[in-house]
Amino acid sequence: MQLYRAHVLVCAGTGCTSSNSLKIMEEMETLLKDNSLESEIKIVKTGCFGLCAEGPIVVVYPEGAMYTRVGVADVKDIVEEHLLKGRIVKRLLAGEKEAEDISKALESVDFFKRQHRIALRNCGRINPENIDEYIAFDGYRALEKVLTGMTPKAVIDTIKRSGLRGRGGGGFPTGIKWEFAAKQVSDQKYVCCNADEGDPGAFMDRSVLEGDPHSLIEAMSIAGYAIGATEGFIYVRAEYPIAVKRLQIAIGQAKEYGILGDNVLGTGHKFDLEIRLGAGAFVCGEETALMTSIEGHRGEPRPRPPFPAVKGLWQKPTILNNVETYANIPVIILEGAEWFASIGTEKSKGTKVFALGGKINNTGLVEVPMGTTLREVVYDIGGGIPKGKKFKAAQTGGPSGGCIPVSHLDTPIDYDSLIALGSMMGSGGLIVMDEDNCMVDIAKFFLEFTVDESCGKCPPCRIGTKRMHEILERITEGKGEDGDIEKLELLAKNIKASALCGLGQTAPNPILSTLKYFRDEYEAHVYQKKCPSGVCKSMLQYTIDAARCKSCGLCTKVCPMNCISGEKKVPYVIDQSKCAKCGACMEKCPFKAIAKI
């Protein structure tokens, strides 16, 4: 076995790949050869580290030095200074660039030291395209333990005692779902994985698939043994080409090693996996719509009951969990139910992965124990709001969730707390908004998404969401009427109560939560024809302060509509009938003579 004195881990997730991380690897390979270091230094292509705002990321072990925003030109310094001479390149370090103690640079970064990684345990640590590296980190030990020393009932009991709940939506207890399917008598059962991940801004499942695909294969095989299924399907977005490629490689390797097939690990257990590509329909995140799509039909939800555990894929008993849920299974089997249950809160066990986005300094993936407060995630891990702006709200659960205001910033993040606030956990998208965001516009944005993604099968969702969107459009265009807010609220409650599936039932959440916490903004739009945040363009005006205007003409040069006119020594004016309200003039004016009203 080849031994190396140092390992260089380079992120090859989607984000860093799009920022030339593969070219960074190529340049490093070239320079290592030029310096005769190729037999001493190993380059490892990994999945996402999580700190996406600072990519591309390169980590050098054994020091654990984490280099951020690395460019191809920076590789020379890393090779010649760090790898050849043993000098840390401080200008590229994450966190405190000037810190003297850099012996554990990675662990000292605030973004990482406050996390507890279970689902993301191998992301950024191993080469996802090498099964041997997964095995070296206890990979497939849980499957071996299950097949050689546990009954299917013991496996299900372990998952039930752990308190693991589904990480993809409503948070249904995973062990109970498996138990329902296990009790069914059938000649065929199926295990399915939802890797469709349609929420805007969510990329938790994608990162696990790209960084640790074997953990999903191991977990689904364990699930198959537990319920008596011999076949599984991974339903993954076609828009995830890196994830699909690495899944295909991992499945091929697992078959080669006897981990998938007719005689898994020589125990007689039979289990195999297939990948099904989704076309990007948000409604296929709903379990029955996903199964309908796997069967080759248009992805539309079915009435429940019967539930999939009784009649699912091809009318056979089926369980469906998302990627993050499965990623917890091998660790629970190895560490024990009590260990997992000791993390989190009484009713929300374990950790949760969030995709931090929006108005936040450290965008990326974080995994924290259930019960961690929103303030800790936003400020201690996320690094706070850019440019010193004030926190206004956080949207959890994507289009299906709601907005949490600053008054609830210290709320512990768990299933029940979020539901009590009018939001939900969902798959884990967490979008942060600051004082410049208009909450009416935010509600309209998310509703526009659900209107487009509705499958159209049931009238409450097909027609009701469209009517709500029309009302919101009127309100944001300054055409709101007395009674519109009440109509919006009534429609939202009726749709929530009558829609066929989870998409329609949760579509009103952004509206109901913003009405609950930001009703004054709706009233300002309707009755004062004013957008307090200055976002809704129909209500804006850009005006020139005659006392400050120096008649320099810079504003006229950037105006795309040619609606600003004036003469030397005479203050310029804006023709409001032509103004596109783009704000280019205000940004260009060096004398701050132009204001947005």
UniProtKB/TrEMBL annotation:
Domain (4Fe-4S ferredoxin-type): residue spans on this chain: 540-569, 570-597
Molecular function via GO: 4 iron, 4 sulfur cluster binding; FMN binding; metal ion binding; NADH dehydrogenase (ubiquinone) activity; oxidoreductase activity
Alphabetical keyword list: 4Fe-4S, Iron, Iron-sulfur, Metal-binding, Oxidoreductase, Ubiquinone
Gene3D superfamilies in the record: 3.10.20.600, 3.30.70.20, 6.10.250.1450, Glutaredoxin, NADH-ubiquinone oxidoreductase 51kDa subunit, NADH-ubiquinone oxidoreductase 51kDa subunit, iron-sulphur binding domain
Matches recorded under SUPFAM superfamilies: 4Fe-4S ferredoxins, Nqo1 FMN-binding domain-like, Nqo1 middle domain-like, Nqo1C-terminal domain-like, Thioredoxin-like
Transmembrane segments: none
Name used for this protein in its record: NADH:ubiquinone oxidoreductase, NADH-binding (51 kD) subunit
Native source species: Ruminiclostridium cellobioparum subsp. termitidis CT1112
Organismal lineage: Bacteria, Bacillati, Bacillota, Clostridia, Eubacteriales
